[in-house]
Design a protein that fits this description.
With 312 residues, the protein is α/β, with parallel strands linked by helices. It folds into 2 domains: 223 residues, Spore Coat Polysaccharide Biosynthesis Protein SpsA, Chain A, CATH 3.90.550; 70 residues. Helices cover 49% and strands 12% of the residues. It is built from 10 helices and 7 strands. It has a 7-stranded mixed beta sheet, with helices on both faces. α9 packs antiparallel against α10. The longest helix has 34 residues.
């Protein structure tokens, strides 16, 4: 069995030379073959040069480097694609995630789980970071039903099939447990140790919560309506048109009571709501047609990544 450790790196020059020996020693203790896939996300410091020096000394290391910064989601996707292991573990290089915890994740996965996520139960980050994270985790658990305490812990263990099925971009790395669960994989979490940041600085501040909101809408659409867009646009368009219809009914009643309605802004508002609702409905209708034609032309109605088993 081969274990792949995927490590996204962005400006971690202070911690890399201290992080890698700890990671390597803990992977060696598992008594299994292993590889370490570093994905340099366009670092502007000496991180890439440090990685090249480490690679020259250790045959277990493979490095991939973007010419410019793309973001953690794209770095993880590349790492998943290039990883050869039967299991894939991800962790950050700042030593806040402890490599010693990998064995716990691996043992838990043997109970039949496809994704085991770390839970930083005693998190050592700043108060504002912990508060924004708690709010994010509460919203995710409440609205999507995948009840985890810590969606965005960098320390996670995946089966090969789970990792290869993920195509992340933007801020979607924060939703990995949900994306895996929506594909039918078994997801769980276990408490893991978390350390104070000793090197570098956090890439995320409190403002990340504002970036999470549009990503949540993206995830909502992809997880619920990617295969049936008319259900989303039709519902929103129907509600919008219905509100406009009631506005116009109200104005019609006023008209028959002898009151002037032609100079009322509410008339224009009602008409706009009806038209906007119809446009949304037909947008969903066209999206459904395009999706149907695309799948028909491709000859593939079901994505093979979503299958539990397929005969060869």
């Amino acid at each position: 069995m081969l274990i792949s450790a995927v490590v996204p790196v962005y400006n971690e020059e202070e911690s890399l030379e201290k992080f890698y020996p700890v990671l390597a020693s803990n992977l060696f203790k598992l008594d299994k073959d292993y590889e370490v896939v570093f994905v340099d996300d366009g670092s502007t410091d000496s991180s890439f040069n440090i990685l090249k020096k480490l690679e020259a000394k250790d045959k277990h290391i493979r490095i991939y480097s973007f010419r410019k910064n793309h973001g953690k989601a794209e770095a993880l996707t590349l790492g998943f694609k290039m990883a050869k292991g039967d299991y894939v573990v991800t962790l950050d290089a700042d030593l806040q995630d402890r490599p010693e915890e990998i064995k716990k994740l691996l043992d838990k996965s043997k109970e039949g789980f496809d994704l085991v996520s770390g839970w930083r139960k005693d998190r050592k980050d700043a108060l504002k970071t912990r508060l924004s994270s708690k709010l994010f985790n509460f919203v995710m658990s409440s609205f999507w039903g995948v009840h985890l305490h810590d969606y965005n812990c960098g320390l996670k263990l995946y089966t090969k099939e789970t990792a290869k099925s993920l195509n992340l971009y933007g801020g979607m790395h924060r939703f990995i447990p949900l994306l895996a669960a929506e594909r039918g994989f078994e997801v769980t979490e276990i408490p893991v140790a978390h350390e104070k940041r000793l090197y570098g600085k956090s890439k995320y501040g409190f403002s990340k919560i504002f970036r999470d909101v549009p990503d949540m809408f993206t995830i909502l659409f992809l997880s619920r309506y990617a295969k049936r867009p008319l259900h989303f646009f039709g519902a929103v368009g129907g509600i919008t048109s219905l509100i406009g219809f009631f506005v116009l009914i109200y104005l019609t009643i006023l008209h028959f009571q002898g009151k002037t309605i032609g100079d009322r802004p509410l008339l224009t508002f009602g008409i706009l709501l009806v038209i906007a609702g119809l446009q949304l409905f037909f947008t969903g209708f066209l999206a459904d047609l395009i999706l149907h034609i695309s799948e028909k032309n491709n000859g593939e109605v079901v994505n093979r990544d979503e299958l539990r088993y397929a005969s060869s």
